[in-house]
Specification:
Layout (H helix, E strand, L loop, with lengths): L3 H5 L1 H4 L5 E3 L7 H9 L10 E5 L2 E4 L26 E4 L2 E2 L10 H5 L4 E2 L2 H9 L5 E4 L8 H13 L6 E6 L7 H9 L2 E9 L3 H6 L6 H13 L3 E8 L6 H13 L4 E6 L7 H8 L25 H15 L2 H6 L1 H25 L1 H10 L11 H12 L11 E7 L2 E10 L1 H14 L6 E11 L2 H17 L2 E5 L4 H10 L8 E2 L1
Parallel strand pairs: 4-7, 7-8, 8-9, 9-10, 10-11, 13-14, 14-15, 15-16
Antiparallel strand pairs: 1-2, 2-3, 5-6, 12-13
Helix pairs in contact: 6-7, 10-12, 12-14, 12-15, 16-17
Bound molecules: iron/sulfur cluster.
């Protein structure tokens, strides 16, 4: 595994893989592969973390890579992937130091850029195609960026359309703006972050609200679309900040927006601070996508931050704003907003469970005893019907809670009756079906294949209403598959350990 997240969470990542490449592995990855081929441990490969019998080893991180030595990616190897936009990296690192960002701890504050000749050579293959310059801050060195754009124009090495991430200060350079327009820049992604001046200071963004407004105006004058990225949830944000941001985005006719929720990314200062303050609600990394609230905000509840952020999204990507600005911002811009209309509604449908989860945080959490009521009723039933079950042990159910996961330990015998009772127990005892479940059936025997099928069907139903369902079983996935095939059923949507 490699990349920013695992670079800062190497030990946890090693629970899921054999090697972690921390930091930039462009030039050391082949050394790791060579070690694996020779069946040797990668003691001398910089930045690699791995497990040994004595414990985990973290080799020191490599120096910042000379990005001129990194070969061009060969996308022809991704034969199954149809690419419409090609990623090109021209630089790494960022001289700024925003508190929520992990770019500087991953790539450093020293801005490194590739030689113009090398970039032009790579761009040759994308002439007439769409390109995304994937740099975190494409114009951090305007002199270098202008040199590149001038050469692209002079040598006619032009994509049909390109986009890049820039800061608002790029809009203060007229020559840069003209070159961007003349080299077919279609869209810029701008970290606007907030219209709350105090939040901009808290984020250490080194820009003011007036800079953002000026930036939008200038890019529009040059016919370049803007995708404005905002981050809600700083310690100075309230529900009003979110309303103000929406009003600002609509008033300034930003072509498309991303209203993100502050996310404590490992490696960022925000992560360190929120962790120290005990305000991180979950370490379920699936939710660290800037659209789920994963920490306790200061001036709002987590639920309020979630609801307000998504409401703002919905209002921005609404019919009046898709078509209302059609003549002012053009058809392409309206098409992006129409796409947003569809995406946000789909997101809301898929994430209803998360709203219930956040809302429940303000309610006292129900603590579960080790033995459930229904388990007792099964015992009673067992006594009454003893003669029928003389040789059978019915099921014993234990439900416990480990952080966000409900653990259901089953021991005994599942027949039609005990199966129904087991799920009744679960539904009666767990507050809402939006949690993680771990169901241990290692000590369960099934009365028949039919019962196993019913059990799987019930798990599938549960999996639809829960965030994650995991099964611990002595049965192999293959043996379950055989039964499923026999009864013409689909593979279950839950995980099997
Ligand atoms: S948010 Fe942008 S400007 Fe700020 S540190 Fe990260 S890459 Fe640099």
């Amino acid at each position: 595994m490699g990349g920013a997240h695992v670079s800062f969470m190497a030990e946890e990542a090693l629970e899921h893989c054999d090697y972690v490449c921390r930091g930039e592995a462009d030039l050391t990855f082949t050394d790791l592969v060579a070690c694996i081929e020779r069946d040797e441990l990668p003691w001398a490969v910089p930045g690699v973390s791995f497990k040994t019998a004595e414990g985990v080893v973290h080799n020191p991180r490599p120096d910042w890579v000379d990005i001129n030595q990194v070969p061009f990616p060969d996308f022809s190897l991704l034969s199954s992937l149809k690419m419409s936009t090609y990623p090109v990296m021209t630089s790494r690192g960022c001289p700024f130091d925003c508190t929520f960002c992990s770019v500087t701890s991953m790539f450093g504050r020293k801005y490194r850029y590739r030689e113009t000749e090398s970039i032009l050579e790579e761009l040759q293959q994308y002439k007439g195609k769409q390109v995304f310059f994937i740099d975190d801050n494409f114009a951090a060195n305007p002199r270098h960026t202008k040199e590149l754009l001038k050469e692209m124009i002079a040598r006619k090495t032009l994509p049909s359309w390109w986009c890049a991430q820039v800061r608002t200060d790029a809009a203060r350079d007229d020559e840069l703006l003209a070159l961007m327009r003349d080299s077919n820049c279609g869209t810029v992604f701008v970290g606007m972050e907030s219209v709350n001046p105090q939040t901009l200071k808290t984020y250490n963004k080194k820009q003011g609200v007036a800079d953002i407004e000026y930036c939008i105006k200038r890019f529009h004058e040059y016919g370049i679309m803007l995708h404005g990225m905002f981050v809600f949830g700083s310690d100075d944000d309230t529900a009003e900040t979110i309303d103000d941001t929406l009003e600002f985005a609509l008033r300034n006719r930003i072509d498309s927006v991303q209203f993100m929720i502050l996310t404590p990314l490992p490696g960022s200062r925000t992560f360190k601070e929120l962790e120290e303050q005990g305000r991180i609600l979950t370490r379920d990394w699936n939710l660290y996508d800037a659209h789920h609230v994963v920490f306790q905000p200061r001036l709002m509840s987590a639920y309020e931050l979630q609801v307000k952020s998504m409401e703002a999204f919905k209002k921005f990507y609404s019919f009046p704003n898709i078509f209302g600005n059609l003549f002012l911002t053009g058809i392409r811009s309206a098409a992006f907003r129409a796409l947003g209309f569809w995406m946000i509604r789909k997101w809301l449908r898929d994430n209803r469970w998360f709203y219930i989860y956040l809302n429940s945080l303000s309610a006292p959490v129900q603590t579960l005893g080790w033995k459930s009521r229904i388990s007792k009723s099964i015992e009673t039933f067992q006594l009454r019907k003893l003669k029928y079950f003389a040789t059978e042990k019915l099921i014993h159910i234990e439900i416990s809670q480990q952080e966000e996961t409900f653990v259901l330990n089953l021991k005994g015998y599942l027949n039609d009756f005990s199966l129904g009772e087991t799920f009744k127990t679960l539904y009666n005892n767990v507050p809402g079906m939006y949690q993680n479940f771990l169901i241990n059936i290692e000590e369960v025997s099934f009365a028949s294949e039919k019962v196993l099928i019913r059990f799987i069907e019930k798990l599938n139903n549960l999996a639809q209403r829960a965030r994650q369902v995991e099964i611990k079983t002595a049965l192999s996935r293959e043996s379950i598959s055989v039964v499923l095939k026999k009864y013409d059923l689909k593979l279950p949507s839950f995980n099997i350990n």
